Every structure is written in C-alpha cells, then in structure tokens.
Automatic annotation (TrEMBL):
Record keywords: NAD, Oxidoreductase
SUPFAM superfamilies given in the database record: Formate/glycerate dehydrogenase catalytic domain-like, NAD(P)-binding Rossmann-fold domains
Name by which UniProt lists this protein: D-glycerate dehydrogenase
Source organism of the structure: Caenimonas koreensis DSM 17982
Domain D-isomer specific 2-hydroxyacid dehydrogenase NAD-binding: 110-289
Length: 323
C-alpha cells in the first residue's frame, strides 16, 4: 500500500524529516525560500497532512483545493495563520506545539525586557560606531528593572513564565490582565495580581504582551492605550505583530510618550514598519523568541508526532479542534 503524502512547508531538522519518511511520502521544502501561495496550494492538493509554520495561511481557499487534507500541524504555539472554524467545517484537524517552548520563550521575553530597559543594543551600536570616547555619569542611563512593576497582558503559560522570572528573580511586583483570572494557586505561584487593562497600562513600569492574536486582540495597543502609559515605561511584544499598532508605537517612541520598546514580532513581518527603523529607543529582533536548537527541535518533533499520531495511530497529541 502506498504511503500517505505529507507536505513540510519550510526547511526543518533533517532527523525530523527522516522520522516522517518512515511513515509518509514527504514533500519537503528543502530551500530557504517560502513557497508562494500558489505553489503551496498546488502541493497541498493530494496531501493527507501538512507540517506548517506561521507563514502559511490555512483558510477556506487553501482548504477548498485540498479535499484529501486531514491534518495541519503547526510548528508554533500560535495558530493565527489557521482559520480553525473553516478547518473544523472541512474536518481538517489543527494542531500546535504548546508547552515545549514556554520557558525558552519566557527567557527571551525577559532578555528583550532587559535589553530594552538597559539600552543594550543602542549602546552597542554607539560603541561599534567608534563614538565611545570617555565614561560619563549619564551615558545610556536606562530604566530600573529590579523592584519595579511588571505588567503582563495575556497570562497563559508564557505569561506565567515571565511573571515567575520577574517576581522570583527580580523582586518585581507583578500585575496582569487576561480574559479570565488565574486560579488562586497559579496567582500565588506567579505572585501576580489581576487588574483591569486600564490599571495595567497606567501602573506598569514594563509591559509585556503575550496575548494570542485574534480579531479581538488586533491593535489592543494603539495610540489611546499608549497614551495611558507612564512616559518612563517600556513595552515588549513577543506575541504577534498586529496586537500593537506599529505606527502609533513608533510615534509614541519618537515623542517619548513611553521610554522604549522591544519587539520580536511585527505587523506584516518580515516587513517592519519604516518608522520603527528610524527611532533609536526600540530593540528589534526577527521573531526568534523560541529560537534555541533544543526548543526548535522539540517543536518540530511535536508537530511530526501530531502527524504520525493522527494519520497512523488516530491519536494526535495536541489537537486544537478535536472531533
Ligand atoms: C510560536 O510558537 O507561536 C512562535 O511565535 C514561533 O512562531
């Protein structure tokens, strides 16, 4: 009997491709280029499963051309590239990669917070440009981190990881806002206090965004929200572009409405809003919060396990829309 065909949309670890090849005929993108939407759609036709990344949109159009498709396994915890209701209507299982990236992503959130508050990249550029001629008492003075108030918007697993780091490692007072309040034992573990979104904006010294992207969270942070923040505050986005209105953020940074920002994700990435590229008080990184070899390997393996688990054994590990 011929093996089912599975698509892998981007180059991933060869050992994970080899695992998939034990069970499937694998059509893998081995290059560094994204497949165009048309090429992805053509290859999806006749596939039983696909291992995708956030770059491939699985919507009504993509699904209509692939009637044999049974599962899309996203190699990401975020899945805003999936139209889950459309997938459910067409009986296509959606899976993601929760848990395996939580601590690594929280580490990066903290790294970005520290780099932003303490002006790490801005001062490095100054040094590399040969501008450093002497010590001075006020050179690159940044914002205090320890003992300040850490605000978290979105208190899922990664948000809780950031909270634990802030509370236990840096003696920060942690406040958060989320769709629903955490159970008391989780609040105690994170030493976190639930507040309204307005209080979060007004009180945080450092605000970290970890909320999933959806139509409801689109531009959750725009000019009106930024205007509520302290002029000494920083903001860090490791969730998704689109949660922040990048043009409004660039304007707030330029006018010193807030002190600084750290961004790992952007609206329309890999394009970055040109205004963000010209303000000095922002640290910009190319969507790398989960990027360590062990974590990316765990993510690829979990996505592969979902394909094998479902198509071979009928049991996916982390389904988003189980039957
Ligand atoms: C995720 O897992 O959602 C990260 O953003 C990597 O894409």
């Amino acid at each position: 009997m011929s093996k089912p065909r599975v698509l892998v949309s981007r180059a991933i670890f060869p050992e994970v491709i080899a695992r998939l090849q034990e069970h499937f005929e694998v059509d893998a993108n081995q290059g560094d280029e994204l497949w165009s939407r048309a090429e992805f759609a053509a290859r999806l036709k006749g596939a039983a499963g696909a291992l995708t990344t956030g770059a491939e949109r699985i919507d009504e159009d993509a699904l209509a051309g692939a009637p044999g498709l049974r599962i899309c396994a996203n190699m990401a915890v975020g899945y805003n590239n999936f139209d889950v209701p459309a997938m459910t209507r067409r009986r296509v299982l959606a899976t993601n990669t929760p848990d395996v990236l939580t601590e690594t992503t929280a580490d990066f959130g903290f790294a970005l917070l520290m780099a932003t508050a303490r002006r790490v990249t801005e001062s490095e550029h100054y040094l590399r440009a040969g501008k450093w001629t002497r010590w001075s008492y006020d050179m690159f003075s940044g914002c205090e981190v320890h003992g300040t108030t850490l605000g978290i918007l979105g208190m899922g697993r990664i948000g809780q990881g950031i909270a634990r780091r802030g509370a236990h490692g840096f003696g920060m007072k942690v406040i958060y806002h989320n769709r629903s309040r955490l159970a008391p034992e989780l609040e105690a573990q994170c030493k976190a206090t639930y507040v309204s979104k307005l209080d979060l904006l007004r009180t945080a010294d450092h605000l970290v965004l970890v909320v999933p992207y959806s139509a409801q969270s689109h531009h959750s942070i725009g000019a009106a929200e930024l205007a509520q923040m302290k002029p000494t505050a920083t903001i860090v986005n490791i969730a998704r572009g689109g949660i922040v209105d990048d043009a409004a953020l660039a304007a707030a940074l330029r006018s010193k409405g807030i002190a600084a920002a750290g961004l790992d994700v952007f609206e329309g990435e890999p394009q970055v809003h040109p205004d963000l590229l010209t303000v000095p008080n922002v640290v910009l990184t190319p969507h790398i919060a989960s990027a360590t070899v062990p974590t990316r390997l765990a993510m690829a393996n979990l996505a592969a396990d979902n394909l094998i688990g479902f198509l071979v054994n009928g049991k996916p590990l982390t389904p988003l829309n189980p039957e």
